[in-house]
């Protein structure tokens, strides 16, 4: 009796794909602390890998070179953090002066809003005037705010605790992990997987390096501008504005916040606010439309629509950190689609 090989093939239907996508998105949402920590570790590992490779070429063991690099990076971030915290302490010591100015502005805004509401009530139909005014929603109690703060603090602690160890392990064991990843695929697909991983590593490294260079340039330019206009706490405001300027689209407005907040206690006319907004917007345009394409544009090929949709989705899913990770995640999807059979049209659409 002959035994014939029976090949069973099945194709998922649209309902199964929707359910699978919903499960993936639910996992990304509820396990955001874990996923974000892993993604940040991968980005930082790709950024530091050339330095570890340089140590390895001069006959320093990879594990020792990874440890030295991580200690140096930790010391650098600790030093920058100390400078920022030192300036922040001085700002917090003067906070009563800024809070009173901010309270004065919000009070004036509330008065103007009340005038507008009275004007709307005056022209409202008679039937609407007899209605009971809507009940004012009380702000959430302090306990709720504290619970929210504890949750945010937990996320920061998770990232700060596990990130250095994950990056160290990724750097020290990269050759073994790289080979094991390629061996997961059939022999006839391994060359394509190797090309995909090489292109992915080059793209992520260029993205991180480009953002780091542009961030430093924007922080230095913002610092110099704030020194020129004699704004208080120029270093602190320059660092915050420079980092916020990296956020696509929204950064042009977010970068105004530090200067406007500190300027409340210094500026009495609207012209300094307009000048600061114009200068910071110009830096945003130059940074993201001139510097970033020149440094990263050759590696990250994404159209404006794909970038905008990615920012909306990942920002909605993960908040501020989603805005930071949106572009590298989308660029990674494009690289994978470009090297996967049947998914090439998706990759072409993302880069159109």
Helix content: over 70%
Q: Could you tell me the number of beta strands?
A: 0
Order of helices and strands: HHHHHHHHHHHHHHH
Q: Count the helices. How many?
A: 15
- How would you describe the shape? globular
Radius of gyration, CA atoms, in whole angstroms:
26 Å
How much of the sequence is in beta strands? under 5%
Structural class: mainly alpha
Summarize the main sheet.
none
- Overall residue-averaged pLDDT value: 77
Note poorly predicted spans.
136-140, 145-151
**End-to-end CA span:** 57 Å
Provide a concise account of the structure shown.
By secondary structure, this protein is mostly helical.
How would you describe this structure to a colleague?
- The structure is a single chain.
- By secondary structure, the chain is mainly alpha-helical.
- The chain has helices at about 15-30, 30-55, 60-95, 95-125, 125-130, 140-170, 175-185, 190-230, 235-245, 250-255, 255-265, 270-295, 305-320, 320-340, 345-350.
- The N and C termini lie far apart (about 55 Å).
């Amino acid at each position: 009796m002959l035994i014939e090989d029976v090949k069973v093939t099945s194709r998922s239907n649209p309902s199964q794909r929707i359910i699978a996508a919903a499960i993936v998105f639910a996992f990304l949402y509820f396990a955001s602390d874990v996923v974000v920590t892993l993604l940040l570790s991968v980005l930082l590992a790709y950024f530091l890998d050339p330095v570890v490779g340089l140590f390895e070429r001069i006959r320093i063991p990879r594990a020792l070179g990874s440890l030295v690099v991580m200690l140096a990076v930790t010391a650098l971030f600790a030093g920058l953090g100390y400078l920022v915290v030192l300036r922040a302490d001085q700002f917090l010591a003067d906070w009563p002066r800024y809070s009173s100015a901010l309270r004065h502005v919000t009070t004036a805004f509330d008065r103007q809003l009340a005038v507008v509401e009275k004007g709307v009530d005056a022209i409202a139909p008679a039937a609407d005037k007899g209605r009971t005014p809507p009940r004012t929603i009380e702000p959430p109690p302090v306990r709720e705010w504290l619970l929210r703060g504890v949750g945010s603090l937990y996320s920061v602690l998770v990232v700060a605790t596990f990130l250095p160890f994950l990056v160290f392990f990724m750097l020290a064991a990269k050759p073994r992990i790289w080979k094991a990843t390629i061996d997961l695929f059939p022999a006839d697909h391994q060359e394509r997987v190797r090309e995909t991983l090489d292109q992915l590593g080059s793209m992520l490294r260029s993205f991180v390096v480009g953002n780091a260079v542009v961030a430093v340039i924007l922080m230095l330019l913002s610092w110099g501008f704030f020194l020129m206009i004699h704004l208080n706490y120029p270093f602190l405001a320059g660092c915050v504005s420079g980092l916020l300027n990296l956020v696509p689209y929204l950064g042009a407005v977010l970068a105004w916040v530090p200067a406007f907040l500190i300027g409340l206690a210094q500026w009495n006319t609207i012209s300094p606010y307009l000048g600061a907004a114009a200068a910071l917007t110009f830096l945003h345009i130059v940074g993201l439309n001139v510097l970033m394409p020149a440094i990263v544009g050759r590696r990250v090929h994404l159209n404006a629509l794909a970038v905008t949709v990615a920012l909306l989705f990942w920002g909605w899913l993960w908040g501020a950190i989603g805005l930071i990770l949106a572009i590298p995640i989308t660029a990674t999807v494009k690289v994978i689609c470009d090297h996967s059979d049947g998914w090439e049209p998706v990759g072409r659409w993302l880069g159109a």
